[in-house]
Amino acid sequence: MPDFLAVGPQRTGTTWLHKVLTGHVGLPVTKETDFFLRNFERGTAWYQAFFSHCAPGAPIGEIDPNYFGSAEARARIAAMIPRCKVVVSLRDPTDRAWSSYRTMRRDAWTRVGFEETILRSAIIRESSRYAFHLSEWQHAFGPDRVLVMLYDDLEADPQTYLDRVCEFIGAPRISVGGTPGAFERVNTVTAAPRSRRLAQNARNTRDWLQMHRWTRADNMLERLGIWRFAFARGEEFGAMDPAAEARLREHFLPEVEALERLLGRDLSAWKGARRGLDSQTSAAGAQA
């Protein structure tokens, strides 16, 4: 079973972290097994098979951003691997909501506008309760076994960010500069799919391949450009609407202030509009 779990939430740099840790620690052949949520009934043997290729001696872990906002997943993890180390990565909730919306449009999970999607999405709303869920993770595993990382720090200094994670999980230091593609933008969504039905079919196919560990087929389709053909080529996303952004920032303000008190850190940058910045812009290597 894993020595560590990076539990997200989504759109906080988890894909980047999985990319730079690959080859240095034991990771499942599929980034998100969703074992402690949708696939728990498949059993421990099914889950452990994802790690059968991992070399002995190195830390073994999983990076699955679906777990952060789920009390059910947290309870299962605490029961099965109580000494697990937990990495929680957090991002300006308004920026994260905008990024999540673009991803949902790409994967054909929604066809309505930004604000309506956020209102309808229980996952986005629940996983944005940062202070509440972080407190629960700390209570379940102990504050010393929960590392909190901020997306802002990843953007500012990827090497220091990665050093902190490696030290926490007990992995050797990894050079970001020596990691191929570490300074490329990862999993950034800039356009909607041209065909929603094609995107739906592609999403279902990709999920099936990943759950059945057909990694080679998944990677081959990626290299051939099949996923890009299915998930892109539609309208380009512009910047977030300023009025919608202002309303969301007001909505998230109490949660941001609660997180400030919990972490003892100034999060003023999360409270006001990112003036002069395109909401899609992120540092090299970060997941947007």
Helix and strand arrangement:
Blueprint lengths: L3 E5 L5 H8 L22 H5 L12 E3 L7 H10 L4 E6 L2 H14 L7 H7 L1 H6 L2 H12 L4 E5 H6 L1 H12 L21 E3 L2 H16 L3 H9 L2 H6 L1 E4 L5 H22 L25
Helix pairs in contact: 3-7, 7-13
Describe the protein's architecture and organization.
With 288 residues, this protein is an alpha/beta fold. The chain has a domain at 4-93 and 129-187 and 258-269: P-loop containing nucleotide triphosphate hydrolases (Rossmann fold). 46% of the residues lie in helices and 9% in strands. It is built from 13 helices and 6 strands. The strands form 2 sheets. A 4-stranded parallel β-sheet has the order 2-1-3-4, with helices on both faces. The protein has a two-stranded antiparallel ribbon with strand order 5-6. Helix 3 runs parallel beside helix 7 and helix 7 (130-141) packs parallel to helix 13.
Helix percent reads 40-55%
How many DSSP E strands?
Answer: 6
> What order do the SSEs take from the amino end to the carboxyl end, as H and E?
EHHEHEHHHHEHHEHHHEH
Biggest sheet features = 4 strands, parallel
Strand order of the largest sheet: 2-1-3-4
The CATH topology of the domain at 4-93 and 129-187 and 258-269 turns out to be: Rossmann fold
Query: What is the CATH H-level superfamily of the domain at 4-93 and 129-187 and 258-269?
Result: P-loop containing nucleotide triphosphate hydrolases
Q: Which CATH architecture of the domain at 4-93 and 129-187 and 258-269 would you pick?
A: 3-Layer(aba) Sandwich
Mean pLDDT: 87
Main CATH class of the domain at 4-93 and 129-187 and 258-269: Alpha Beta
In percent terms, what proportion of residues is strand? 5-15%
Q: What's the alpha carbon Rg, rounded to whole Å?
A: 18 Å
Model regions low in confidence, pLDDT < 50 over at least 5 residues: 275-288
- The rough form would be described as globular
